[in-house]
Amino acid sequence: MPSLQRRLEGNKTRQQTVKYRITLAYDGTDYSGFQFQTGLKTIQGVLNSAVDKLESAPVTLHAAGRTDAGVHAEGQVISFQLNGDWDPSTLVRAINGNLPDDIRVLDAARAPEDFHARFNAKGKTYRYQVWNGEVMNPFLLRHAWHYRYAIDIEKLSEQSRALLGTHDFSAFTVSDCEVRTRIRTITRISIEQQNSLISLVFSGDGFLRYQVRTMVGVLMNANRGRLKINSIEELIESRDRKLAGTPAPAQGLTLMKVEY
Amino acid sequence: MPSLQRRLEGNKTRQQTVKYRITLAYDGTDYSGFQFQTGLKTIQGVLNSAVDKLESAPVTLHAAGRTDAGVHAEGQVISFQLNGDWDPSTLVRAINGNLPDDIRVLDAARAPEDFHARFNAKGKTYRYQVWNGEVMNPFLLRHAWHYRYAIDIEKLSEQSRALLGTHDFSAFTVSDCEVRTRIRTITRISIEQQNSLISLVFSGDGFLRYQVRTMVGVLMNANRGRLKINSIEELIESRDRKLAGTPAPAQGLTLMKVEY
User: Fold this and answer.
1) Which ipTM did the prediction report?
2) Global pTM value
3) Are residues A83 and A141 in the same domain?
Protein backbone atom coordinates (compact mmCIF):
# COMPACT_ATOMS: atom_id res chain seq x y z
CA MET A 1 0.00 0.00 0.00
CA PRO A 2 1.52 3.34 -1.00
CA SER A 3 2.48 5.78 1.70
CA LEU A 4 0.70 9.14 2.04
CA GLN A 5 3.84 10.79 0.68
CA ARG A 6 3.78 8.63 -2.45
CA ARG A 7 0.11 9.31 -3.01
CA LEU A 8 0.59 13.05 -2.64
CA GLU A 9 3.44 12.95 -5.18
CA GLY A 10 1.19 10.98 -7.49
CA ASN A 11 -1.49 13.65 -7.23
CA LYS A 12 1.05 16.39 -7.72
CA THR A 13 2.32 14.72 -10.89
CA ARG A 14 -1.18 14.29 -12.25
CA GLN A 15 -2.01 17.94 -11.64
CA GLN A 16 1.09 19.11 -13.52
CA THR A 17 0.19 17.19 -16.67
CA VAL A 18 -0.26 19.64 -19.55
CA LYS A 19 -1.83 18.97 -22.95
CA TYR A 20 -0.03 20.42 -25.97
CA ARG A 21 -0.79 20.74 -29.63
CA ILE A 22 1.93 21.26 -32.17
CA THR A 23 1.88 22.05 -35.88
CA LEU A 24 4.21 19.81 -37.84
CA ALA A 25 5.70 20.13 -41.35
CA TYR A 26 7.51 17.26 -43.00
CA ASP A 27 8.87 16.04 -46.29
CA GLY A 28 7.40 12.54 -46.36
CA THR A 29 9.67 11.27 -49.17
CA ASP A 30 11.94 9.19 -46.97
CA TYR A 31 9.24 7.90 -44.59
CA SER A 32 6.89 4.90 -44.61
CA GLY A 33 3.97 7.18 -43.75
CA PHE A 34 2.91 8.79 -40.50
CA GLN A 35 1.77 5.81 -38.45
CA PHE A 36 4.23 3.83 -36.32
CA GLN A 37 5.31 0.49 -37.84
CA THR A 38 7.91 -1.73 -36.23
CA GLY A 39 11.18 -1.76 -38.16
CA LEU A 40 10.19 1.04 -40.54
CA LYS A 41 11.09 4.72 -40.50
CA THR A 42 7.83 6.58 -39.89
CA ILE A 43 7.02 10.17 -38.95
CA GLN A 44 5.33 9.00 -35.74
CA GLY A 45 8.27 6.78 -34.81
CA VAL A 46 10.82 9.54 -35.29
CA LEU A 47 8.63 12.19 -33.61
CA ASN A 48 7.92 9.90 -30.68
CA SER A 49 11.65 9.33 -30.10
CA ALA A 50 12.15 13.11 -30.14
CA VAL A 51 9.31 13.84 -27.69
CA ASP A 52 10.12 10.88 -25.41
CA LYS A 53 13.53 12.44 -24.70
CA LEU A 54 11.75 15.28 -22.88
CA GLU A 55 10.01 12.94 -20.44
CA SER A 56 10.88 10.05 -18.16
CA ALA A 57 8.05 7.91 -19.57
CA PRO A 58 6.88 7.27 -23.17
CA VAL A 59 4.50 9.89 -24.56
CA THR A 60 1.40 9.01 -26.62
CA LEU A 61 0.95 11.12 -29.77
CA HIS A 62 -2.32 11.71 -31.61
CA ALA A 63 -2.18 13.07 -35.17
CA ALA A 64 -4.98 14.83 -37.02
CA GLY A 65 -4.34 12.80 -40.16
CA ARG A 66 -2.36 9.62 -40.75
CA THR A 67 -0.59 10.52 -43.97
CA ASP A 68 0.55 7.62 -46.19
CA ALA A 69 4.07 6.76 -47.31
CA GLY A 70 5.60 9.58 -49.36
CA VAL A 71 2.85 12.08 -48.48
CA HIS A 72 3.92 15.43 -47.00
CA ALA A 73 2.53 17.88 -44.46
CA GLU A 74 2.74 21.62 -44.06
CA GLY A 75 0.18 21.78 -41.27
CA GLN A 76 -0.22 18.40 -39.57
CA VAL A 77 -1.47 18.78 -35.98
CA ILE A 78 -0.37 16.51 -33.13
CA SER A 79 -1.61 16.45 -29.55
CA PHE A 80 0.08 14.91 -26.51
CA GLN A 81 0.37 15.20 -22.76
CA LEU A 82 3.57 16.13 -20.94
CA ASN A 83 4.32 16.01 -17.23
CA GLY A 84 6.41 19.14 -17.34
CA ASP A 85 4.91 22.58 -17.96
CA TRP A 86 6.84 23.78 -20.99
CA ASP A 87 6.92 27.26 -22.38
CA PRO A 88 5.58 26.65 -25.93
CA SER A 89 8.46 28.30 -27.79
CA THR A 90 10.98 26.40 -25.66
CA LEU A 91 9.06 23.21 -26.47
CA VAL A 92 9.34 23.94 -30.23
CA ARG A 93 13.11 24.30 -29.93
CA ALA A 94 13.48 21.26 -27.67
CA ILE A 95 11.60 18.90 -30.01
CA ASN A 96 13.22 20.31 -33.15
CA GLY A 97 16.61 19.77 -31.54
CA ASN A 98 15.82 16.05 -31.42
CA LEU A 99 14.35 15.78 -34.94
CA PRO A 100 15.96 15.28 -38.36
CA ASP A 101 15.88 18.29 -40.74
CA ASP A 102 13.02 16.95 -42.85
CA ILE A 103 10.56 17.11 -39.93
CA ARG A 104 9.97 20.45 -38.19
CA VAL A 105 7.70 21.63 -35.42
CA LEU A 106 6.38 25.00 -36.65
CA ASP A 107 4.62 26.03 -33.46
CA ALA A 108 3.31 24.72 -30.16
CA ALA A 109 0.52 25.78 -27.82
CA ARG A 110 -1.05 24.60 -24.57
CA ALA A 111 -4.43 22.99 -25.28
CA PRO A 112 -7.50 22.13 -23.19
CA GLU A 113 -7.05 18.89 -21.22
CA ASP A 114 -9.55 17.01 -23.41
CA PHE A 115 -8.13 18.21 -26.74
CA HIS A 116 -7.47 15.40 -29.23
CA ALA A 117 -5.86 16.28 -32.59
CA ARG A 118 -7.89 13.69 -34.51
CA PHE A 119 -11.27 13.58 -32.75
CA ASN A 120 -11.57 17.35 -32.45
CA ALA A 121 -10.64 18.10 -36.08
CA LYS A 122 -13.56 19.80 -37.86
CA GLY A 123 -11.97 20.09 -41.28
CA LYS A 124 -8.87 19.38 -43.32
CA THR A 125 -7.28 20.83 -46.42
CA TYR A 126 -5.06 18.83 -48.77
CA ARG A 127 -3.17 20.06 -51.83
CA TYR A 128 -2.25 17.86 -54.78
CA GLN A 129 0.40 19.11 -57.24
CA VAL A 130 0.54 18.00 -60.87
CA TRP A 131 3.41 18.92 -63.20
CA ASN A 132 1.80 19.05 -66.63
CA GLY A 133 4.83 19.64 -68.87
CA GLU A 134 6.54 17.49 -71.48
CA VAL A 135 9.74 17.50 -69.37
CA MET A 136 9.56 16.99 -65.59
CA ASN A 137 10.79 19.80 -63.32
CA PRO A 138 13.79 18.28 -61.47
CA PHE A 139 13.00 20.42 -58.41
CA LEU A 140 9.53 18.90 -58.01
CA LEU A 141 10.47 15.20 -58.25
CA ARG A 142 9.49 14.70 -54.60
CA HIS A 143 6.51 17.03 -54.64
CA ALA A 144 4.47 16.66 -57.82
CA TRP A 145 3.08 14.05 -60.18
CA HIS A 146 4.48 14.27 -63.70
CA TYR A 147 1.36 13.97 -65.87
CA ARG A 148 2.05 14.36 -69.58
CA TYR A 149 -1.43 14.34 -71.16
CA ALA A 150 -2.88 17.75 -71.97
CA ILE A 151 -5.18 19.05 -69.21
CA ASP A 152 -8.10 21.35 -69.98
CA ILE A 153 -8.16 23.45 -66.82
CA GLU A 154 -11.61 24.98 -67.28
CA LYS A 155 -13.11 21.60 -67.98
CA LEU A 156 -11.25 20.22 -64.95
CA SER A 157 -12.73 22.86 -62.64
CA GLU A 158 -16.18 22.11 -64.01
CA GLN A 159 -15.72 18.34 -63.64
CA SER A 160 -14.44 18.72 -60.07
CA ARG A 161 -17.79 20.20 -58.99
CA ALA A 162 -19.34 16.72 -59.05
CA LEU A 163 -17.23 15.89 -55.98
CA LEU A 164 -18.44 18.86 -53.92
CA GLY A 165 -20.98 18.28 -51.18
CA THR A 166 -21.92 15.26 -49.07
CA HIS A 167 -21.45 11.83 -50.66
CA ASP A 168 -20.69 8.23 -49.87
CA PHE A 169 -17.10 8.10 -51.14
CA SER A 170 -16.79 4.27 -51.06
CA ALA A 171 -15.57 4.27 -54.69
CA PHE A 172 -12.65 6.51 -53.65
CA THR A 173 -11.12 4.48 -50.83
CA VAL A 174 -9.53 1.09 -50.22
CA SER A 175 -12.00 -1.74 -49.78
CA ASP A 176 -10.54 -2.73 -46.40
CA CYS A 177 -10.91 0.78 -45.05
CA GLU A 178 -12.49 0.25 -41.63
CA VAL A 179 -14.44 3.35 -40.74
CA ARG A 180 -17.91 3.83 -39.28
CA THR A 181 -19.13 5.66 -42.35
CA ARG A 182 -17.77 6.49 -45.77
CA ILE A 183 -19.90 9.59 -46.05
CA ARG A 184 -17.82 12.76 -46.21
CA THR A 185 -18.49 16.38 -47.12
CA ILE A 186 -16.21 18.29 -49.47
CA THR A 187 -16.71 21.99 -48.90
CA ARG A 188 -14.29 23.49 -51.41
CA ILE A 189 -12.18 22.51 -54.40
CA SER A 190 -9.86 25.07 -55.94
CA ILE A 191 -7.75 24.42 -59.03
CA GLU A 192 -4.95 26.78 -59.96
CA GLN A 193 -2.39 26.76 -62.73
CA GLN A 194 0.99 28.48 -62.76
CA ASN A 195 2.78 27.66 -66.00
CA SER A 196 3.10 23.85 -66.00
CA LEU A 197 2.22 23.44 -62.30
CA ILE A 198 -1.39 22.63 -61.47
CA SER A 199 -2.48 22.69 -57.81
CA LEU A 200 -5.73 21.02 -56.76
CA VAL A 201 -6.79 22.02 -53.24
CA PHE A 202 -9.53 20.05 -51.46
CA SER A 203 -11.19 21.09 -48.19
CA GLY A 204 -13.69 18.98 -46.32
CA ASP A 205 -14.79 17.64 -42.98
CA GLY A 206 -12.47 14.68 -43.43
CA PHE A 207 -11.09 12.35 -46.09
CA LEU A 208 -11.00 8.56 -46.36
CA ARG A 209 -7.75 6.73 -46.95
CA TYR A 210 -6.53 7.35 -50.57
CA GLN A 211 -9.58 9.55 -51.17
CA VAL A 212 -7.73 12.66 -52.34
CA ARG A 213 -5.30 10.72 -54.54
CA THR A 214 -8.18 8.70 -56.02
CA MET A 215 -10.18 11.88 -56.71
CA VAL A 216 -7.15 13.34 -58.53
CA GLY A 217 -6.72 10.15 -60.58
CA VAL A 218 -10.43 10.18 -61.43
CA LEU A 219 -10.37 13.86 -62.43
CA MET A 220 -7.37 13.30 -64.73
CA ASN A 221 -9.08 10.33 -66.40
CA ALA A 222 -12.33 12.26 -66.72
CA ASN A 223 -10.44 15.16 -68.29
CA ARG A 224 -9.03 12.82 -70.94
CA GLY A 225 -12.45 11.22 -71.47
CA ARG A 226 -11.15 7.95 -70.03
CA LEU A 227 -13.49 7.27 -67.12
CA LYS A 228 -14.62 3.65 -66.85
CA ILE A 229 -18.18 4.90 -66.30
CA ASN A 230 -20.20 7.76 -67.83
CA SER A 231 -19.58 10.45 -65.24
CA ILE A 232 -18.10 11.23 -61.85
CA GLU A 233 -21.67 11.43 -60.48
CA GLU A 234 -22.29 7.83 -61.60
CA LEU A 235 -18.94 6.75 -60.22
CA ILE A 236 -19.84 8.14 -56.78
CA GLU A 237 -23.23 6.43 -56.97
CA SER A 238 -21.67 3.08 -57.96
CA ARG A 239 -19.57 2.99 -54.73
CA ASP A 240 -17.35 0.64 -56.75
CA ARG A 241 -13.64 1.05 -56.09
CA LYS A 242 -12.73 -0.86 -59.24
CA LEU A 243 -14.33 1.78 -61.47
CA ALA A 244 -12.24 4.60 -59.97
CA GLY A 245 -8.89 3.50 -61.45
CA THR A 246 -5.44 4.03 -59.95
CA PRO A 247 -4.93 6.72 -57.29
CA ALA A 248 -2.52 9.52 -58.22
CA PRO A 249 0.97 8.88 -56.76
CA ALA A 250 1.80 9.85 -53.16
CA GLN A 251 4.49 12.48 -53.77
CA GLY A 252 2.02 15.09 -55.09
CA LEU A 253 -0.02 15.16 -51.87
CA THR A 254 0.42 17.48 -48.87
CA LEU A 255 -1.76 17.90 -45.77
CA MET A 256 -1.93 21.70 -45.65
CA LYS A 257 -4.18 22.55 -42.73
CA VAL A 258 -6.40 21.13 -40.02
CA GLU A 259 -9.31 23.12 -38.66
CA TYR A 260 -10.75 22.86 -35.13
CA MET B 1 47.49 8.24 -98.16
CA PRO B 2 43.69 8.11 -98.00
CA SER B 3 41.74 6.99 -101.03
CA LEU B 4 39.40 9.39 -102.84
CA GLN B 5 36.48 7.45 -101.38
CA ARG B 6 37.79 7.96 -97.82
CA ARG B 7 38.36 11.66 -98.42
CA LEU B 8 34.86 12.08 -99.81
CA GLU B 9 33.38 10.36 -96.77
CA GLY B 10 35.52 12.57 -94.57
CA ASN B 11 34.09 15.65 -96.26
CA LYS B 12 30.59 14.31 -96.04
CA THR B 13 30.99 13.69 -92.29
CA ARG B 14 32.39 17.16 -91.74
CA GLN B 15 29.48 18.76 -93.58
CA GLN B 16 26.93 16.86 -91.48
CA THR B 17 28.32 18.15 -88.19
CA VAL B 18 25.67 20.25 -86.46
CA LYS B 19 26.09 22.57 -83.47
CA TYR B 20 23.38 22.40 -80.78
CA ARG B 21 22.55 24.40 -77.70
CA ILE B 22 20.42 22.95 -74.96
CA THR B 23 18.89 24.48 -71.84
CA LEU B 24 19.52 22.36 -68.76
CA ALA B 25 17.87 22.31 -65.33
CA TYR B 26 19.36 20.37 -62.44
CA ASP B 27 19.15 19.90 -58.71
CA GLY B 28 22.82 20.18 -57.80
CA THR B 29 22.42 18.70 -54.30
CA ASP B 30 23.93 15.32 -55.08
CA TYR B 31 26.66 16.54 -57.44
CA SER B 32 30.23 17.76 -56.96
CA GLY B 33 29.53 20.76 -59.17
CA PHE B 34 29.26 21.11 -62.93
CA GLN B 35 32.82 20.55 -64.05
CA PHE B 36 34.15 17.06 -64.77
CA GLN B 37 36.34 15.59 -62.01
CA THR B 38 37.71 12.07 -62.15
CA GLY B 39 36.05 9.79 -59.62
CA LEU B 40 33.36 12.31 -58.64
CA LYS B 41 29.73 12.57 -59.70
CA THR B 42 29.47 15.85 -61.62
CA ILE B 43 26.80 17.34 -63.89
CA GLN B 44 29.24 17.43 -66.80
CA GLY B 45 30.31 13.83 -66.23
CA VAL B 46 26.73 12.54 -66.14
CA LEU B 47 25.61 14.73 -69.07
CA ASN B 48 28.61 13.70 -71.15
CA SER B 49 27.82 10.01 -70.62
CA ALA B 50 24.25 10.69 -71.76
CA VAL B 51 25.27 12.63 -74.88
CA ASP B 52 28.13 10.27 -75.79
CA LYS B 53 25.60 7.46 -76.18
CA LEU B 54 24.15 9.28 -79.21
CA GLU B 55 27.49 9.33 -81.06
CA SER B 56 30.28 6.94 -82.01
CA ALA B 57 32.96 9.31 -80.62
CA PRO B 58 33.12 11.34 -77.37
CA VAL B 59 31.36 14.73 -77.52
CA THR B 60 32.88 17.91 -76.04
CA LEU B 61 30.44 20.00 -73.96
CA HIS B 62 30.74 23.72 -73.24
CA ALA B 63 28.65 25.16 -70.41
CA ALA B 64 27.72 28.82 -69.94
CA GLY B 65 28.55 28.67 -66.23
CA ARG B 66 30.50 26.15 -64.18
CA THR B 67 28.27 25.91 -61.14
CA ASP B 68 29.89 24.77 -57.88
CA ALA B 69 29.04 21.74 -55.76
CA GLY B 70 25.45 21.90 -54.47
CA VAL B 71 24.48 24.81 -56.75
CA HIS B 72 21.41 24.36 -58.98
CA ALA B 73 20.37 25.50 -62.45
CA GLU B 74 17.03 26.30 -64.01
CA GLY B 75 18.54 27.70 -67.20
CA GLN B 76 22.10 26.46 -67.72
CA VAL B 77 23.08 26.52 -71.41
CA ILE B 78 25.34 23.90 -73.01
CA SER B 79 26.72 23.81 -76.55
CA PHE B 80 28.15 20.82 -78.43
CA GLN B 81 28.64 19.42 -81.89
CA LEU B 82 27.02 16.22 -83.13
CA ASN B 83 27.71 14.27 -86.33
CA GLY B 84 24.07 13.38 -86.79
CA ASP B 85 21.44 15.97 -87.69
CA TRP B 86 18.91 15.59 -84.89
CA ASP B 87 15.45 17.02 -84.77
CA PRO B 88 15.68 19.24 -81.63
CA SER B 89 12.66 17.78 -79.83
CA THR B 90 13.88 14.23 -80.57
CA LEU B 91 17.27 15.25 -79.18
CA VAL B 92 15.64 16.48 -75.94
CA ARG B 93 13.93 13.10 -75.46
CA ALA B 94 17.04 11.12 -76.44
CA ILE B 95 19.32 12.88 -73.93
CA ASN B 96 16.69 12.90 -71.15
CA GLY B 97 16.25 9.17 -71.68
CA ASN B 98 19.92 8.72 -70.72
CA LEU B 99 19.90 11.14 -67.75
CA PRO B 100 18.92 10.69 -64.09
CA ASP B 101 15.72 12.45 -62.93
CA ASP B 102 17.53 15.32 -61.21
CA ILE B 103 19.01 16.58 -64.50
CA ARG B 104 16.63 17.52 -67.33
CA VAL B 105 17.11 18.98 -70.79
CA LEU B 106 14.33 21.59 -71.10
CA ASP B 107 14.84 22.41 -74.76
CA ALA B 108 17.29 22.09 -77.63
CA ALA B 109 17.95 24.12 -80.77
CA ARG B 110 20.36 24.10 -83.72
CA ALA B 111 22.94 26.87 -83.29
CA PRO B 112 25.40 28.66 -85.60
CA GLU B 113 28.56 26.64 -86.22
CA ASP B 114 30.71 29.02 -84.15
CA PHE B 115 28.30 29.23 -81.19
CA HIS B 116 30.00 28.64 -77.81
CA ALA B 117 27.81 28.57 -74.67
CA ARG B 118 30.45 30.26 -72.50
CA PHE B 119 32.27 32.67 -74.83
CA ASN B 120 29.09 33.97 -76.45
CA ALA B 121 27.21 34.55 -73.18
CA LYS B 122 26.40 38.26 -72.79
CA GLY B 123 24.73 38.06 -69.40
CA LYS B 124 23.69 35.76 -66.59
CA THR B 125 21.07 35.80 -63.88
CA TYR B 126 21.45 34.01 -60.55
CA ARG B 127 18.92 33.68 -57.75
CA TYR B 128 19.85 33.20 -54.10
CA GLN B 129 17.14 32.03 -51.66
CA VAL B 130 17.24 32.79 -47.94
CA TRP B 131 14.76 31.28 -45.47
CA ASN B 132 14.48 33.91 -42.75
CA GLY B 133 12.27 32.13 -40.22
CA GLU B 134 12.92 30.85 -36.73
CA VAL B 135 12.18 27.29 -37.92
CA MET B 136 13.57 26.02 -41.23
CA ASN B 137 11.11 25.02 -43.96
CA PRO B 138 11.74 21.26 -44.46
CA PHE B 139 10.83 21.58 -48.17
CA LEU B 140 13.63 24.08 -48.81
CA LEU B 141 16.51 22.21 -47.16
CA ARG B 142 18.18 21.72 -50.53
CA HIS B 143 17.23 25.09 -51.96
CA ALA B 144 17.61 27.87 -49.41
CA TRP B 145 19.94 29.12 -46.68
CA HIS B 146 18.38 29.11 -43.22
CA TYR B 147 19.36 32.52 -41.86
CA ARG B 148 17.90 33.28 -38.42
CA TYR B 149 18.88 36.90 -37.77
CA ALA B 150 16.20 39.48 -38.51
CA ILE B 151 16.57 41.01 -41.98
CA ASP B 152 15.47 44.58 -42.71
CA ILE B 153 14.36 44.19 -46.32
CA GLU B 154 14.21 47.89 -47.19
CA LYS B 155 17.67 48.46 -45.77
CA LEU B 156 18.88 45.36 -47.65
CA SER B 157 17.62 46.71 -50.99
CA GLU B 158 19.30 50.00 -50.27
CA GLN B 159 22.57 48.34 -49.25
CA SER B 160 22.56 46.15 -52.33
CA ARG B 161 22.78 49.21 -54.60
CA ALA B 162 26.48 49.58 -53.72
CA LEU B 163 27.10 46.41 -55.76
CA LEU B 164 25.40 47.69 -58.92
CA GLY B 165 27.53 48.88 -61.80
CA THR B 166 31.07 48.11 -62.93
CA HIS B 167 33.58 47.20 -60.22
CA ASP B 168 36.69 45.18 -59.57
CA PHE B 169 35.14 42.35 -57.54
CA SER B 170 38.44 40.89 -56.25
CA ALA B 171 37.14 41.02 -52.67
CA PHE B 172 34.27 38.74 -53.68
CA THR B 173 36.13 35.81 -55.23
CA VAL B 174 38.70 33.18 -54.30
CA SER B 175 42.28 34.42 -54.31
CA ASP B 176 43.40 31.69 -56.73
CA CYS B 177 40.72 32.62 -59.24
CA GLU B 178 42.59 32.75 -62.55
CA VAL B 179 40.78 35.11 -64.86
CA ARG B 180 42.01 37.88 -67.13
CA THR B 181 40.12 40.52 -65.22
CA ARG B 182 38.07 40.70 -62.05
CA ILE B 183 36.05 43.60 -63.32
CA ARG B 184 32.39 42.75 -63.77
CA THR B 185 29.20 44.73 -64.29
CA ILE B 186 26.07 44.05 -62.27
CA THR B 187 23.09 45.42 -64.16
CA ARG B 188 20.23 44.52 -61.81
CA ILE B 189 19.60 43.34 -58.27
CA SER B 190 16.07 42.55 -57.19
CA ILE B 191 15.13 41.50 -53.68
CA GLU B 192 11.73 40.02 -52.99
CA GLN B 193 10.12 38.67 -49.84
CA GLN B 194 7.27 36.19 -49.64
CA ASN B 195 6.56 35.43 -45.99
CA SER B 196 9.85 33.98 -44.65
CA LEU B 197 11.39 33.40 -48.08
CA ILE B 198 13.70 36.11 -49.40
CA SER B 199 14.91 35.89 -53.01
CA LEU B 200 17.90 37.92 -54.15
CA VAL B 201 18.23 38.00 -57.93
CA PHE B 202 21.46 39.26 -59.53
CA SER B 203 21.91 39.97 -63.25
CA GLY B 204 25.21 40.95 -64.81
CA ASP B 205 27.62 40.41 -67.68
CA GLY B 206 29.27 37.61 -65.73
CA PHE B 207 30.21 36.57 -62.22
CA LEU B 208 33.49 35.44 -60.67
CA ARG B 209 33.73 32.18 -58.78
CA TYR B 210 31.87 32.48 -55.41
CA GLN B 211 30.93 36.08 -56.27
CA VAL B 212 27.16 35.74 -55.83
CA ARG B 213 27.47 33.71 -52.62
CA THR B 214 30.03 36.18 -51.24
CA MET B 215 27.80 39.14 -52.11
CA VAL B 216 24.91 37.47 -50.27
CA GLY B 217 27.12 36.82 -47.23
CA VAL B 218 28.33 40.43 -47.29
CA LEU B 219 24.77 41.80 -47.62
CA MET B 220 23.60 39.73 -44.64
CA ASN B 221 26.52 40.92 -42.51
CA ALA B 222 25.97 44.52 -43.60
CA ASN B 223 22.29 44.22 -42.72
CA ARG B 224 23.23 43.17 -39.18
CA GLY B 225 25.86 45.90 -38.94
CA ARG B 226 28.59 43.28 -38.87
CA LEU B 227 30.79 44.19 -41.83
CA LYS B 228 34.51 44.04 -41.11
CA ILE B 229 34.89 47.40 -42.84
CA ASN B 230 32.76 50.60 -42.86
CA SER B 231 30.72 49.96 -45.99
CA ILE B 232 30.24 47.75 -49.02
CA GLU B 233 31.76 50.54 -51.14
CA GLU B 234 34.95 50.40 -49.05
CA LEU B 235 34.94 46.61 -49.20
CA ILE B 236 34.85 46.70 -53.01
CA GLU B 237 37.63 49.27 -53.03
CA SER B 238 39.79 47.21 -50.65
CA ARG B 239 39.82 44.25 -53.10
CA ASP B 240 40.59 42.23 -49.95
CA ARG B 241 38.93 38.80 -49.87
CA LYS B 242 39.58 38.46 -46.11
CA LEU B 243 37.31 41.42 -45.34
CA ALA B 244 34.33 39.89 -47.18
CA GLY B 245 33.68 37.07 -44.71
CA THR B 246 32.23 33.63 -45.47
CA PRO B 247 30.25 33.09 -48.68
CA ALA B 248 26.60 32.07 -48.22
CA PRO B 249 26.17 28.28 -48.55
CA ALA B 250 25.81 26.65 -51.97
CA GLN B 251 22.29 25.24 -51.68
CA GLY B 252 20.59 28.66 -51.90
CA LEU B 253 22.06 29.43 -55.35
CA THR B 254 20.51 28.74 -58.76
CA LEU B 255 21.70 29.77 -62.23
CA MET B 256 18.40 31.03 -63.67
CA LYS B 257 19.19 32.33 -67.12
CA VAL B 258 21.95 32.99 -69.63
CA GLU B 259 21.61 35.73 -72.21
CA TYR B 260 23.22 35.75 -75.67
Assistant:
1) 0.85
2) 0.89
3) no
